[in-house]
């Protein structure tokens, strides 16, 4: 069933907002530490990081369930978990129970991951993929900034009020229940119901590797920018926040223009993304002012999102229709896994090379991205390619 009405687009894109849920608590960490003085800082930090850790295994669970459950039932299950894990901590005083509920939240968000991107190929035609995945990037970047801002306002009247931000799950639940039709069930030639599964070609495996590597590359900026700015003596904590926010601004801008870029650049879209991504790290590595750092991270947000949105756009072409939701979940899981282990990988490889400074890590990451750009340019120059999209 393929519909392109505005309400359907809003309902599908609203699911993506729940991917941002775990990070909202970051503004309240100091207050949580003050409320539980007997709890170690590492456990306090776990209230923020535990959901992210659980997202990865539960995204695989969600990918499997997408093949055996009705899509609307799976959405309802995931949203209910987000609501329970998100809002219930307001009513508890036990830190242990708080951690358990944060785990429930992570499980719900993990199940959401394959649905957030995987429902786009289910409800929309291939020529709409670039627009829809670009729109998803807009929703994620605007939503990310709005989540942090609203959470900050709520925290001003008491840190527990931050948990009310998860009430947005009720809106998502209503929108999806009322608007989303259950996808048409595919059948085999003998009339039996066609079961889902992971039916994909070898190109999909390459996309998983690229998503994993992109996750590692993107998080190098998050884990090293503060140390770089402090070491250079060019800014304070406020300016660090501004520089990192420019990543989201860059992603937001890319979301608006991705469809046009995809139509114009065609098979060289990945080359452009890698050039921007790698070049931004080189620029950041030589930056001597906050302004240049901000410009670099803005370009990085554009380039990184070119690559991530492109992977999402092309993945459905590597899978059977009944496998696409599961495939999108595994793609997202690989990217999140890359982000999760990024510090270990980056520090391990650069350590072996005798590179210990944040600047060296930036130049190393940027150089690898530029090498990928050259390889991609050579490969794509010899390949036939079609965007499968028509400009409207």
User: Which radius of gyration do the C-alpha atoms yield?
Assistant: 21 Å
Tell me the series of helices and strands, N- to C-terminal.
HHHHHHHHHHHHH
Portion in helices: over 70%
Low-confidence stretches: 187-193, 386-392
Largest sheet: none
Task: Count every beta strand, where a strand is a DSSP E run of 2 or more residues.
Answer: 0
Please identify the structural class as seen in this structure: mainly alpha
Helical stretch tally: 13
Mean pLDDT over the full residue set: 86
Which band does the percent of strand residues land in?
Answer: under 5%
Question: What characteristics describe this protein?
Answer:
single chain; 73% helix; 392 residues; mainly alpha; disordered C terminus; 13 helices
Word description of this protein:
By secondary structure, the protein is an all-alpha fold. Helices cover 73% and strands 0% of the residues. The protein has 13 helices and no strands. Helix 1 (6-17) packs across helix 6 (129-155) and helix 4 (71-87) packs antiparallel against helix 5. The protein is globular. The two termini are 22 Å apart. The model is unreliable at 187-193 and 386-392 (pLDDT under 50).
Give a brief rundown of this model:
With 392 residues, this protein is mostly helical.
Protein topology:
Blueprint: H1 6-17, H2 29-35, H3 41-68, H4 71-87, H5 95-123, H6 129-155, H7 168-179, H8 202-232, H9 237-265, H10 269-285, H11 290-314, H12 324-352, H13 358-381
């Amino acid at each position: 069933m393929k519909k392109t009405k505005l309400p359907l687009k809003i309902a599908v894109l609203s699911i993506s907002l729940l991917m941002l849920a775990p990070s909202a608590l970051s503004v309240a960490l100091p207050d949580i530490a003050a409320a539980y003085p007997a709890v170690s800082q590492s456990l306090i930090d776990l209230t923020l990081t535990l959901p992210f850790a659980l997202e990865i295994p539960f995204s695989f669970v969600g990918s499997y369930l997408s093949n055996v459950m009705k899509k609307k039932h799976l959405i309802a299950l995931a949203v209910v978990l987000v609501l329970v894990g998100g809002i219930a901590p307001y009513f508890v005083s036990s830190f242990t129970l708080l951690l358990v509920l944060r785990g429930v939240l992570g499980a719900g968000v993990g199940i959401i991951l394959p649905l957030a991107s995987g429902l786009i190929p289910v409800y929309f035609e291939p020529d709409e993929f670039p627009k829809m995945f670009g729109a998803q990037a807009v929703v994620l970047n605007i939503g990310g900034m709005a989540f942090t801002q609203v959470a900050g306002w709520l925290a001003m009247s008491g840190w527990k009020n931050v948990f009310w931000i998860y009430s947005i799950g009720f809106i998502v639940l209503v929108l999806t229940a009322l608007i989303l039709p259950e996808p048409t069930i595919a059948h085999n030639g003998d009339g039996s119901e066609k079961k889902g599964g992971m039916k994909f070609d070898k190109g999909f495996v390459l996309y998983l590797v690229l998503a994993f590597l992109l996750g590692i590359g993107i998080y190098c900026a998050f884990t090293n920018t503060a140390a770089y700015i402090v070491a250079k003596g060019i800014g304070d904590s406020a300016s660090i926040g501004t520089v990192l926010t420019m990543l989201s601004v860059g992603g937001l801008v890319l979301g608006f223009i991705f469809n046009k870029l995809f139509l114009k650049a065609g098979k060289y879209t990945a080359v452009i993304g890698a050039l921007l991504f790698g070049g931004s790290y080189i620029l950041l590595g030589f930056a001597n002012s906050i302004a240049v750092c901000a410009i670099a991270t803005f370009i990085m947000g554009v380039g990184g999102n070119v690559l991530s949105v492109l992977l999402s756009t092309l993945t459905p072409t590597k899978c059977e229709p009944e496998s696409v939701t599961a495939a999108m979940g595994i793609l997202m899981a690989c990217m999140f896994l890359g982000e999760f282990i990024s510090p270990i990988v980056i520090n391990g490889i650069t350590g072996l090379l005798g590179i210990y400074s944040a600047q060296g890590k930036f130049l190393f990451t940027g150089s690898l991205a530029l090498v990928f750009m050259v390889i991609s340019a050579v490969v794509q120059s010899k390949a036939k390619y079609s965007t499968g999209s028509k400009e409207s």
